[in-house]
Amino acid sequence: MGYAQLVIGPAGSGKSTYCSSLYQHCEASRRTMHVVNLDPAAENFDYPVAMDIRELISLDDVMEELGLGPNGGLMYCMEQLEENLDDWFAEELDNYLDDDYLVFDCPGQIELYSHAPVLRNFVEHLKRKNFNVCAVYLLDSQFMTDVTKFISGCMASLSAMVHLELPHVNILSKMDLVTNKKDLEEFLDPEPPFLLSELNQRMAPQFAKLNKALIELVNDYSMVTFIPLDLRKESSIHYVLAQIDNCIQYGEDADVKVKDFDPPEEDE
Ligand SMILES: Nc1nc2c(ncn2[C@@H]2O[C@H](COP(=O)(O)OP(=O)(O)OP(=O)(O)O)[C@@H](O)[C@H]2O)c(=O)[nH]1
Ligand SMILES: [Mg+2]
């Protein structure tokens, strides 16, 4: 059994930064995990890259040879990943099977989470290889300042949830930038009636029915919980990781992989 996090969310929401902080956190607690880069456009990494989609295909080459722009180029690269699941990716994955913990740093293109088939097939592949997979959806806390943004964030996350059909953890990133935590608290685990009244206040009366339906939807899918993440605090990273581990049942087997300790210096 392997374990995997699929780290997704809009461009700039903090996915790669999360991956590197998580890596450091695990390193410090002598826990083994590997970060995989699935973003063909990524250039700099603050974590050791265990597998790299750029070894499969180069975005620059694709853009140049096919005359595609950055977005089309990226989607083409992701399609190539999909085509190569049973060869390139399977071979790479062979290095990491039993009890390994992989974290996939994905690109931020929203179409990957809403309708493009690549990530779905990617996840299916991981499941076939006996991985327990969890989607970790990051949303920038800077965009959680009012109810309309909250709803739109929920909808984007919900669309990823129905598209990928995975256990799903929502994270509110960049909490260190939030100056007024009180404003945010009402969105962390909000009451539906509160959301509805806020939404009704914001929108013209003809939206009342839509608002009600939206809030019900968000509520029915129990989408309304976001875990705040402040990367400055080890306790915050620890908490987020514990929630995700729980989702993928990591640590429930007695023999989870712990990094070998350096042998203690022996006194002669
Ligand atoms: N203050 C603060 N800035 C952050 C945090 N996380 C990310 N950032 C900044 O936000 C920007 C985007 O972060 P990334 O980690 O590259 O975001 P990403 O989701 O990987 O972006 P894409 O790969 O382009 O989709 C960078 O400038 C980061 O330094 C955080 O927790 N706090
Ligand atoms: Mg990134």
Automatic annotation (TrEMBL):
Sequence intervals crossing the membrane: none
UniProt xrefs under Gene3D superfamilies: P-loop containing nucleotide triphosphate hydrolases
Record-level Gene Ontology MF annotations: GTP binding; GTPase activity
Signal peptide: none
Keywords: GTP-binding, Hydrolase, Nucleotide-binding
SUPFAM superfamilies: P-loop containing nucleoside triphosphate hydrolases (SSF52540)
A Pfam family reported for this protein in Swiss-Prot or TrEMBL: ATP_bind_1
Family: Belongs to the GPN-loop GTPase family.
PANTHER family: GPN-LOOP GTPASE 3 (PTHR21231:SF7), XPA-BINDING PROTEIN 1-RELATED (PTHR21231)
Assembly and oligomerization: Binds to RNA polymerase II (RNAPII).
Biological function: Small GTPase required for proper nuclear import of RNA polymerase II and III (RNAPII and RNAPIII). May act at an RNAP assembly step prior to nuclear import.
Protein name: GPN-loop GTPase 3
